[in-house]
Amino acid sequence: MQEEWENSDDIGLKKIDLGEEEKLAFDTQSYVSVEIDKPDEKKISKIVLTWAIIFSLVTIPIFYHNIRNYINDYCTTSTRNPLRVKTTKLSYKNLYDKSEITGLISAESSVDIVARVDGYLEKTYFKEGDFVRKGQLLFTIEPNEYKISVRAAEAEVAQAMALYTNSIQELERAKELVKENFISRSDYDSIVAAANSQKASLDAANQSLARARLNLSYTNIYAPMAGKAGKINMSDGNYVGLQSGPLVTIAKMDPICVDFSMKSSDVLKMKHGNNNLDINTAKVELLLSDDTKYDKIGKIIFSDNVVSSQVASLSLRAVFQNHDNILIPGDYVRVIITSKEPHNKLLVPQAITHGDALNGYYLWTVKDGETHKNRITVSGSEGSDWIVESGVTAEDDVIKSSNEPIDMERIPVLIKTSKKQDSATQ
Fold first, then answer.
1. CATH number at residue 211
2. Is a pLDDT exceeding 90 seen at residue 177?
3. Which of 57, 97, 344, 416 lies at 20 to 30 Å from 79 by C-alpha?
4. 165: Cα separation from own chain's centroid
C-alpha cells in the first residue's frame, strides 16, 4: 500500500493509506512527457572547423617567423667565426660629487634713480658705466622754480608769524581785562580762538615752507648706494618727472650673486648629506660663457621656501667676490656645486661605449665566452671617461676592441686580455 502524509489541524501530520488504483493514478499524474530538440551535429562541426582554420591562418605564420629567426640566429652564431677581442677591466678613481646647473648673474642689490620733482634736466655729472660712490651728485634738475616756491613759503611764514604774535599780545591784555570784568567772558573766548587760529596758520605756513625746501632739495639727485651706473635714459634738456621712469640704474657689483634652480630631490639630498653634498658646505664654482672657470669660490647664501610647482625645483642663490668686475649682471653661467670630500667612482672610457644621452649608453662585455650587452647609467664625465653608476662592475671583462663590429649578443669570442689600466683604487 502507498503511504502519504497529510496535514491535520489537531495532530500535525497524519499518515493515510492509498489503494492500488489510487497509487497508479498518483504516479501517472506525477510525470509529464517533454520533447527536447536534439542539436545539429553537422552545424556544430562546421562552426568548429571554421574557427580552427582561422586560428591556424593567424598563428602558423607567427610561429613560422619566430622559429625561422631563431634558426637563423642559431645558425649564424654557431657557424660564425669567433670574434677576436681585447678586454680590459674598469678602474675606480677618487672623485668629488658634482652637480652642474645653469645660473643667471644678478646684482646683490640695485636701485633705479628717478626724478622726484618735475622739471628740465639741467646737468648730468657722470658717464654711463662709471662706478659711483654713495652720496655722489648724479643729476641736477633746473631749480629756479623751486627756489621761488621756497621764498614764497618763507614770506607766508613771516606773515603768519606776525599775525600770531599780535594775537598772543591781544590775548595777554584780555586776560587782565577779563579779571577786572572790563570785557565779557564771550569776548575773551573769541580772542583765545583767534590766537589759536593764528597758531594753526603759522604751523601750516611752516609745513608749506618745509615742503618747498624738500622739493628744492630733490632738484639735486644723489647716488643712494655705491655701484656701477648703467645706461642713462634721459639726456640733459629733457623734461623729467615721476612719469619719466628711471633716469639710470645703479647696481652693486661687489659682491655679486648668481641665481639658479635645483631639483627639489637633489636639494634634499644635499641637506641630508647624501651623495656627500651639503648645501651649507658645498663649494660653488662658475664656468663662464667663454668656457673658462671663474677663479673665485662662492657660497650658497639663500634657498627659497617654496618649491616651484611647474618644474619641481627650488631657487637658490650663491654669492661671489667680484673685485675685477668680471661677472656682469644678466649673463648666464654654469654653476658647479662640488662636495666637500671625494668618493670612489667607476670610470668607463667614452671610446668603448655606444649610444647617446637620449637613448642611453651601453657597452659590450664577455660572459661565458660570448658577447653580452650591458646598458649603463652615466652620471657625468671625468676627462675622456664616463662616470658610471650602474650596469657594469670592475669585475666585468669589458670589450675594448674587436677585429669586427659587434652587432649582436651571444657571439663566441677569442679573448686577448690587454694590460690593466689604472686598476688600482685611488
1. 2.40.50.100
2. no
3. 416
4. 69
Long-range contacts of 380-385 (CB under 8 A, 24+ apart): 380/98, 380/100, 381/350, 382/93, 382/95, 382/345, 382/347, 384/349, 384/350, 384/351, 385/347, 385/348, 385/349, 385/350
Mean pLDDT of all residues in 182-199: 88
Same domain, 185 and 215: yes
End residue of a domain, out of 234, 250, 266 = 250
User: Would you say residue 255 has pLDDT above 50?
Assistant: yes
Instruction: Return the pLDDT at 406.
Output: 84
Lowest mean pLDDT among 7-11, 119-123, 221-225, 304-308: 7-11
| 26 in a structural domain | no
- Overall average pLDDT of the 275-294 stretch: 79
Calpha distance 17→5 (Å, rounded): 9
How would DSSP label each residue in 93-133?
EEEEEEEEEEEEEEES-EEEE--SS-EEEEEE-S-TT-EE-
Distance CA 370, CA 413 (A): 6
Residue 350's SS3 state is helix
Nearest to 15 by CA among 3, 23, 24: 3
How does strand 413-417 pair with strand 83-88?
A: parallel
Find where cell 658646505 sits. 281
Q: Are the beta carbons of 362 and 355 closer than 8 angstroms?
A: yes
Containing structural domain, residue 396: 83-95+344-417
pLDDT of residue 219: 96
CA dihedral 187, 188, 194, 198 (to 10 degrees): 160
Q: Report the C-alpha gap between 6 and 10 in whole angstroms.
A: 12
Q: Is the pLDDT of residue 25 over 60?
A: no
Q: What percentage of the chain reaches a pLDDT higher than 90? A: 34
E-assigned strand segments in 155-293: 220-222, 227-229, 239-240, 248-251, 256-263, 283-287
Alpha carbon distance, N-terminus to C-terminus of the chain? 108
Q: What is this structure's pTM?
A: 0.55
111-138: pLDDT as tens digits: 999 999 999 999 999 999 899 999 999 9
Is 191 contained in some domain? yes
Kindly tell me the sign of the dihedral angle through the C-alpha atoms of 340, 343, 348, 349.
positive
Give the SS3 label for residue 370: strand
